[in-house]
């Protein structure tokens, strides 16, 4: 029996190099389009029973389909498509799909793409699927939100927006962002990080995700709460910061906002910081990888004021100042020893 699904085939522009997986993709899409077709179900069963590889490939695709993150992301995109459909002129005669139908089509497409591309790319693909705005490594981007507030994304960052109705909500999916929020006492502005939530009415602050969420306030006032335990919260005044982790909130501390937020103007500024910490920060702007062989180098304290548009040049300069030897391998791998 052929590995290809019989009958009319879906768009063949996306094909998996493995013919069994490719056939499973065909069956899967057709089944989502016609879930009540008993004849299709019978033919699918015959195909699954004909070879153990068929059942394994189809099961893998079904597992991808059932991921809750995929359903949430698909529903978000379905609502966007509904909104775009409604924005069209009333005179335009176009097919009408309700959100449930859109969700099935979008989720099916997403599952097909992720299986075709490979499961190892799933986290990055899901991030792109959820994000409304994102930046690549070394890139920064600024834009205006629907309420007139402004946001600036730092390197390798992504956000998802929710401004439906009276909501003013942003989820920082990855990286770092600076917010300059338009005051609206009736509509609090909320930012969700990995572990904490920030609520403001009109202020300017940054949020950075990673091993913890770091919130820095430039002006105004913000309330920061740990999502798992809302009783754990802190109020920040200008020039203060707090970190939120699964363990709770750090003590509120003073911070030099000019240095910590210098990335907005394309600079990195540090004073007497361990080289390891500076390299970790620079690594967010460098597309390659930095490996320190001599662990002692990481403890050397360094100071500097550098442009971020040449991250490799900064790394080399700091290594030279620390007395390290630099070896660059293909693929952008830098070894310090």
From TrEMBL:
Keywords: Membrane, Transmembrane, Transmembrane helix. The keyword Transmembrane applies. Residues 133-223 form the FecR protein domain. It comes from Aquamicrobium lusatiense. It comes from the Bacteria. This is Transmembrane sensor. GO terms for molecular function: sigma factor antagonist activity. Residues 22-63 form the FecR N-terminal domain. The chain crosses the membrane at residues 102-122.
